[in-house]
Amino acid sequence: MSESLIKPRIGLLGTGPWAARTQAPALAAHPDVEFVGVWGRRPEAAGEIAVAHGVTAYDDVDALFAACDAVAVALPPDVQAPLVIRAAAAGCHVLLDKPVATTVAGAREVAEAVDKAGVSSVVFFTLRFAPDTAHWIGEQAGLDGWFTAHARWLGSLFSADSNSPYAASPWRGQKGALWDVGPHVLSVLLPVLGDVTAVTAAPGPGDTVHLVLGHASGASSSATLSLSAPAAALGAGGAGIELRGEPGVAELPAWGDSVGAFGAAVDALLRGMHTGAGHPCDVHFGLRVTEILADAEAQLGR
């Protein structure tokens, strides 16, 4: 049997910029998986990705599930959720994008389907898999005495002069920064400060949201999230997270390319497939993030 035949076979759901720029290149470059195919709601885009990486473009998503041991998903959250349920039922391990879904009921259905099928799950929160930030989060989570934290995640995606390919994303336009970049912030704060015990949310200009969070450790945190900030307001970088407490002051380091981070998420899924052990960023963590964001959204009246 050739080496390629004993590697887990993985497929890709989605054909947008995130799929084409991050997930497909990471899957094609990963030495321990066989990237076998892609499915998308736009067949012509699936064909382009398939040609670029020498894989098969599938018209039938269930046929892709049948050809795979695992699937990676690069779809809007509420398109992702029902397809992950189908993939799990077909016996595929799943590498989801954040957020898992934008309703608690949808995220809970995904978690229940994954549990019922007994498949492994990983949700790709970039900062939990990029090497520098993942190491930093682990270090801070091992320290006691954090008093407070502040997160700032500003983007100009919806500014008048934006040329980002993600600006045309309908789900981002509808759900805004709370759901797009809010998961990144929560993926850092929860392992360090503990689960969220209280949420207060207030709106700002455009899609801007201000959050104040209480945590199980007794610490508090705040976050400002926006995809409609003026480009000049971003300065040298629009994202940052700072912790303060008895250990001193700690700032989240810069992180590298998303392709490498996604490769690390594939590694995590493979470990789960081989050992049966869960991952801290599994579908249940994804469900918890959705619960927190849904609470904030309800307060905003959006």
Task: Output the keywords.
302 residues, alpha/beta, single chain, 12 strands
Record the SSE blueprint:
Elements: H1 3-6, E1 9-13, H2 17-29, E2 34-39, H3 43-53, E3 56-58, H4 61-66, E4 70-73, H5 77-89, E5 93-97, H6 104-117, E6 121-124, H7 126-129, H8 131-141, E7 146-154, H9 170-180, H10 182-193, E8 196-203, E9 209-215, E10 220-226, E11 239-245, E12 248-251, H11 258-275, H12 283-300
Parallel strand pairs: 1-2, 1-4, 2-3, 4-5, 5-6, 7-10
Antiparallel strand pairs: 7-11, 8-9, 9-10, 11-12
Helix pairs in contact: 2-11, 5-6, 6-12, 8-10
Describe this structure in words.
This protein has 302 residues and is of the alpha/beta class. The mean pLDDT is 95. The protein has helices at 3-6, 17-29, 43-53, 61-66, 77-89, 104-117, 126-129, 131-141, 170-180, 182-193, 258-275, 283-300, and strands at residues 9-13, 34-39, 56-58, 70-73, 93-97, 121-124, 146-154, 196-203, 209-215, 220-226, 239-245, 248-251. It starts with a helix and ends with a helix. The strands form two sheets. A six-stranded parallel sheet has the order 3-2-1-4-5-6, sandwiched between helices. A six-stranded mixed sheet has the order 8-9-10-7-11-12. It is 45% helix and 23% strand. The chain folds into two domains: 3-125 and 258-281, Rossmann fold (3-Layer(aba) Sandwich); 131-255, Dihydrodipicolinate Reductase, domain 2 (2-Layer Sandwich), CATH 3.30.360.
